[in-house]
Design goal:
The protein is an all-alpha fold. Helix content is 71%, strand content 3%.
C-alpha cells in the first residue's frame, strides 16, 4: 500500500513538476507565464494526435514539445516584442488552447482520442512508473545546474532581477527573455504529454483541469527554484494521491480537506508566514533599451 501511495504521488507530481520548471525558466527571465495551463492542454492534445497518426509515443511527445514551443512563442512575442500585458497575453493563450482543442476534438473524428499510444514504463512486475518520471528527475538537475552553474543561467536570472545591469554589460535582455519563455513551452508541452500519453493514454476536453495554475503555485511555493519546486509538486501530488486513497478506503473524511492543504500552505508562503517567497524584481515588467 505504501508503494501504491508513493507511485500515485510521483505520477501526479510529474506533470506539475515539468510545468513548474517551465514557470521557473520563464519567470526567472522576467516574464509572467500563466499560459502554462494552455500550453499543457495543447501539449496533451498534440501528444495524442501525433502518437495516433504516427503509431509512436515518442513522436507524440516530440509533437507536444514542438506545439508547446510554438504556443510559448506567441506569448513571448506579445509580451516581449509588443510589450503587452503579460497576464492578459497568458489568459488569451489559455482561452485559445481551450477553444482550439475543443474544435479539434469534435472536428477530427478519425482520431481515436481515447486510444493514444502510451509511453514505455519503468520498473518491474506491477510496480511500474511512466518514463516521464525519469525525464522530470533529470530535467530538474539540468535546469538547476544551468541556472546556477553556467554563465547562461546567470544572464537569464539577471534578465529577471536586474535587466538594466545586464544591458549595461553588453548582454541583450530580450533574447534572454525569449529563451526563458520558449524553454517554458518545451517543459509545459512535455508536461502535457506526461498527462495524456504518460498517465491516461487518452485526450479529454479540458484535461489540464487547472494543473498549469497548480504548477505556478508550486513554483511560487518553491521560491522560483527547481529544487524547491520538486518538494512543492510532491506535496500537491501526495495530496491528490491521498484524497484518492481515502475515497477507495471509504474513510469518512471529505477529500477536499486533504486537497486544500497545499493551497493553504501556498497562501501562507505568499503571505510571508512560511519563510519568504520573493519574486524576481523585474518580473512582469517590459524592458526597453536603456531601461526606459
Amino acid at each position: 500500500m505504501i508503494w501504491v501511495f508513493i507511485a500515485s504521488t510521483l505520477r501526479g507530481a510529474t506533470p506539475l513538476l515539468l510545468a513548474a520548471l517551465g514557470g521557473v525558466t520563464s519567470e526567472r527571465s522576467g516574464v509572467v507565464n500563466i499560459a502554462l495551463e494552455g500550453i499543457m492542454l495543447m501539449g496533451a492534445w498534440a501528444a495524442v494526435y501525433f502518437s495516433v497518426l504516427s503509431g509512436s509515443a515518442w513522436i507524440g511527445t516530440l509533437g507536444a514539445i514542438v506545439v508547446g514551443t510554438i504556443i510559448a512563442a506567441l506569448h513571448a512575442i506579445a509580451s516581449i516584442r509588443f510589450k503587452a500585458n503579460q497576464v492578459v497575453s497568458g489568459t488569451a493563450i489559455n482561452l485559445l488552447a481551450a477553444g482550439f482543442t475543443e474544435y479539434a476534438y469534435n472536428a477530427w473524428r478519425d482520431i481515436t482520442w481515447d486510444k493514444a499510444i502510451p509511453m514505455p514504463e519503468l520498473g518491474f512486475g506491477s510496480y511500474k512508473l511512466t518514463i516521464f518520471v525519469l525525464f522530470a528527475a533529470i530535467l530538474v538537475v539540468v535546469v538547476w545546474f544551468a541556472l546556477y552553474k553556467t554563465p547562461w543561467g546567470l544572464r537569464l536570472r539577471a534578465a529577471g532581477e536586474h535587466p538594466l545591469a545586464l544591458d549595461t554589460v553588453g548582454v541583450k535582455v530580450e533574447p534572454m527573455r525569449y529563451q526563458g519563455v520558449l524553454l517554458s513551452g518545451v517543459f509545459a508541452g512535455l508536461a502535457g504529454a506526461a498527462l495524456s500519453i504518460g498517465m491516461l493514454s487518452r485526450f479529454t476536453l479540458g484535461m489540464s483541469s487547472g494543473k498549469g495554475f497548480i504548477a505556478l503555485a508550486a513554483m511560487i511555493f518553491g521560491r522560483w527554484d527547481p529544487i524547491g519546486s520538486v518538494f512543492a509538486c510532491l506535496l500537491f501530488g501526495a495530496a491528490d494521491a491521498l484524497s484518492t486513497l481515502l475515497q477507495i478506503w471509504q474513510v469518512p473524511i471529505p477529500s477536499f480537506f486533504v486537497l486544500m492543504a497545499p493551497y493553504v500552505l501556498t497562501m501562507l508562503a505568499l503571505a510571508g508566514l512560511v519563510g519568504r517567497s520573493t519574486a524576481p524584481k523585474a518580473l512582469g515588467t517590459p524592458y526597453t533599451k536603456g531601461g526606459k
